[in-house]
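During the practical work, I selected for study one protein's amino acid sequence and its backbone structure tokens, as given directly below:
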Amino acid sequence: MIIHRKQLLTILLILLSFAGIAQNKLVTGRVADATTNEPLEFVTIFITNTTMGTTTDEKGSFSISLPPGRYEMVVSMVGYGPIVHPIEVTPEKSPQAILFKLTQTETALNSVSVKAKRDPSWYDNLELFKTNFLGRSEVASQCKLTNPENLIIVFDPVNGTLKVESKDLMVIENPVLGYKVSYLLVEFNYDLNQKYVSYLGYPRFEPLKGSKAKQKRWEKNRLKAYNGSAMHFVRTLRQQKLEEEGYNLRRLIRIPNPDRPSEEEFAEARRQLYALGNSTTLTENHPLNKILAKTSLPKILEKLDTTRVSYSEYISERGDDVSLSFDGYFQIVYTGEKEEPAYVAASSPFRKRQPTYQTSVVSMKEKQVLLETSGSISDPLALVFEDYWGWEKVGDMLPLDYEPGKE
């Protein structure tokens, strides 16, 4: 029998495909009511930040095929408290079957929702939440939160903080990237005074169905969203190929502005001015005027160290684990794409400027984090993103099992 080159290539591709499937391991388990031990049907099981998920059958059983790696499995059902379970899949053997017992919380949640009246301010705060959770980008602006009635929104006008919880999975439709996102929101905090947003949650991505034209458009939009994203950066950093992928990483030095008085000095100057009364006119050289005239000066001065930072200064490897650790700030410029006009308008509201390369600032709140092969980090709140990555939000996210050119 003669095998032609095309046939040989086809056979090799089939063998490689089966080899890839063979590496996956079947994770099985069962979900039951913690009080009655009765099996729970239609419980949502998913691997956070991916498209991988399933539901339990009439016996409360489930199974899901996973490649080797570390994951977080979310178990969620209306009326029950969710469970987030870490799981590690190794090439050697399948994990043992898992028993999840869910505890009912429906009564407690209903009592909270009664207090959360839907007055006009609730809807204003809802828009504030969507803007700072979904984002303001071209993609995010077209996302739709389909079940806002499940949100518990609390605004504290004294401290200027907005806190949001959800009684059930939030459902977000993203027509630009072609996903339905079910998001288990653990916490959302927005400090309006400090302009600081933090949120923690567990999303599941479900690809939308559409025509071939739509699929092609979604693939193009996903690739654009991926390039220059934090996930793209983490994957590239793990491989130590930043320059090849269009990234420039440099140290950013921030120091207090020595020419700007302290907040205590400003407060004392205002107190003295108030004590003088309205009849007093301050001259240009008056000591109080000299102090108060400096309120517009920036609190922090920045200086960019243009010296290339060696990977060994902030990356460490131990077996398959790659860790990130550094002090201070990194400025990261992605040269493969310009800023969106909406970002330019938001970052420079009082002056017009042309879009430049996407620039972000990263700092660490913990000493060290693991960089996963998927593009995630071991502790999502350990890194603080500013500027472009700080501006991009959930609306621009992609699942961690997204691979460019493999759809």
Notes: The first strand starts at residue 25 and ends at 33.
